[in-house]
Fold:
Amino acid sequence: QVQLVESGGRLVHPGGSLRLSCVVSGLTFKDYAIGWFRQAPGKEREFVQGINFSGIFTYDGRSAKGRFTISRDDAKNTVYLQMTKLTPDDTAVYYCAAGESLDMAPHVYRYWGQGTQVTVSS
Structure:
């Protein structure tokens, strides 16, 4: 019954911006940390950014480099990933995941969405 649905992925030119959304249902949203991950072909899944259950604490992965902003709206059961200054290296399938605690390791997260494709190219 737990469902995480990502949206917002598309083709964008280098230097552009994009906002991804993750709508969560089937669990008590405010009790879970949410992490954004990405995976490109031939590469391991990589932590991008995460936010704790209360939304007070966030954590940046190496790839974020201060370019991305994660936020959550408890009223909408939605987490956002605002991405700016995108480069081709950001091309990947982006996933959101819910877990009991904020962590960089994918295995910590119990529930996952199906992903949304982000392609950065000219």
DSSP finds no helices and eleven strands in the chain.
